[in-house]
Each structure stands twice: as C-alpha cells, then as structure tokens.
Amino acid sequence: MSTSALRLSGIDMHYGYVRALAGIDFHVEPGEVVGLLGDNGAGKSTLLKVMSGAHRPSGGSIAVHGREVEFHSPSDASDAGIQMVYQDLALIDAQDISTNLNIGREILYKGPLGWLGFIDRKAMRRRSETELDRLGVRTAPMTRPVEMLSGGQRQVVALARSAIRVSGSLSETGDTNGVLLLDEPTAALGYEQTKQVEALIRRMAGQGVAIVLVTHNLPLCHEVADRVVVLNRGSKVADVPMAGTDPDHIVGWITGARPSQTFQEYP
C-alpha cells in the first residue's frame, strides 16, 4: 500500500448547530487527480478549506505523507507541501509574470545592493523560465504584465506558481510529492483556454503531484480525473474511479437521486 500524499479521516465540521461535514474520509495519492464534486452547499469548499488550513475541523485527523498534522493556518499547510489555487487566482495584475511567480521568494542582489533589499529581476526571470520549462509551460514573455494575459494564461500562471511552491516546500521537508488544491480552475474560461489548463493538470500529475480538483465542469473531470468523490449535504455519497463510471450516475449522486456508493482503491 502506498502512502497517501494527503489523507483525511473522520472529518467533522460544525458551525454552531449546523454540521457542514459529517465524518468525511478522503485521500489522494501521489500523481493522482481526484475530482471533488457536489452541488452548491454540499460541503466541497468547506472540505477544501480544511485541507488548505483555512479552517480547523471540529473532529477527525489529517495526515500528509503518512505523518499526522494539525493545521492552524494556511501557512502550516503550505509548509507541509499543500498549495491552494483560489478562483480569484490571487495574482497581481500590474506586475509581470516573473514577479507573480516569485512572490515571497524574491532573489536579491549579492553584496551591498542585496543588503539594502534590491531585487535581481534578471535572475528571477531566468529562474522562472527554468521552472516553467520543467513544467512544460509556455505562456508569454516573463516581462509581460498579468493584466495583458488571457484568462487561460492567467490560470496557467497561477497553477504554475503553486506547483513551483509545492516543489520548493518539499525540497526542504525531504518529500517527493506535493498536493495542489484547485478551486474551479476553468470557471469562465473558453474551450481553448480550458484545454490549456487540462494539459497542465495532466503534466503536473505526471510529475507526481497529487491534485484535488473542485469543479462543476463534469467534462473536465472526465478528461483529467482518476477518481471522483461526491459530497451531498456534508456527507460523502460516492468515491469511485472515473474510468467506467456513468456520467448519469455522478449526476444522480450530486442531486441525491442515486444511493450512496463508495469504492476505496487504496485501503
């Protein structure tokens, strides 16, 4: 049995008397893409916030690469190798691609200029180009402001930034695989832009990154997901491999018209 990149066991989440999550078990393996599906209010966003450290669960446990952890903030999850890409992307529109890729890990000049906090932008551009080449990403020149990019290019920059941060965090902890949490990565994108994002998700998974994909886009799930987990009113109602699963069954689980079914590929 392989060690899961991320495993949640018996996760409960209460908001006063409201139970938003009810004993959720969830895992994602290195190199696996898991689609997290459900209607509005099903608990997807809440579970994603638990994974990312934004919310502390009322009960249950979280393990990263087999080590039980407690997240008190998103920075704790980031230190453990978990990165979240939000719907709003959190990019700085007025800054160029290189600056956005290097936020929080800027390269300073060596010597007196570095002591004074001067940033070596040429070095950052070179590093950015190397990192994007490793991911197989081609967007636009590193000096182009994000506000001049298409929606698909912006999404690719946000995904690449998180993938790069995952690699950086893991090099410090000694692990080999990180976790990316994607919240509606193709919302408001056209067909060609969606295909760009699909290709990048597959490349990142091929490099061993574990990916959790929250989306309402079922065709996207069929293209990139290895497994789907469906939530309904805070409970897990399905955990099945994508291959061979009837789309109508998935819709039935989402709407509550179909009985619960779980399939655990990894015990």
Automatic annotation (TrEMBL):
Name the domain of life.
Answer: Bacteria
Q: Which UniProt keywords apply?
A: ATP-binding, Nucleotide-binding
- Keyword check for Lipid metabolism: no
The ABC transporter domain sits at 6-258
A single GO molecular-function term is: ATP hydrolysis activity
Q: Which Pfam families match?
A: ABC_tran (PF00005)
**ATP-binding: present as a keyword of the record?**
yes
Q: Which PROSITE patterns match?
A: ABC_TRANSPORTER_1, ABC_TRANSPORTER_2
Identify this protein by name.
Answer: Monosaccharide ABC transporter ATP-binding protein, CUT2 family
Question: Which species does this protein come from?
Answer: Actinoplanes derwentensis
Lineage start: Bacteria, Bacillati, Actinomycetota, Actinomycetes, Micromonosporales
